[in-house]
Amino acid sequence: MKVLIAYGTRHGTTEYCAKKLEELIRADIDTVRLEKGKTYDLSSYDMVVIGSPVYTGSFLKEVTGFLLNHRDELSERRIGLYVCCITPVREAEVYLRDLFPAELVSKACATGIFGGAFDFQKMSVMERFLIRRVKKVETSVSTLSEESIALFARAVQEVCPES
Predict the structure, then answer these.
(1) What residues contact residue 78 under an 8 Å CB cut-off, 6+ apart?
(2) Most CB atoms closer than 10 Å: which of 69, 97, 117, 129?
(3) pTM here?
């Protein structure tokens, strides 16, 4: 099985998850950080895993663009979807369901909520200010779940293999 892990990231948490999945999934894998305005050739992939952080209730523009530009190609492949956000799991489930196109969510053979992080060292002054004001968080914090990442990788291996 040939797998593409395509992700967007701002401060590295979603990238960390993509790299972890690359280690855990036993397949021929390419991992790519999505770039705004760029198109990708998906023709050689049996499966595409797409990951995005959630910022202020939205995906990054590069992830949204990838989903729009490759909608038809993605509908022809096995799909895995994951989100990284520091919100409670129930809220993150809503983001996963509502921010990814409904047809991809309904056909995804693996979905994951991996948690998130506020890494004050990687944030701008304005981001730190907003996090302190809105989320009432004063220092770096992580809710990243290694177990959730491993369960997702296992689902890709067991539920999503080639037909």
Answers:
(1) 46, 47, 48, 109, 160
(2) 117
(3) 0.87
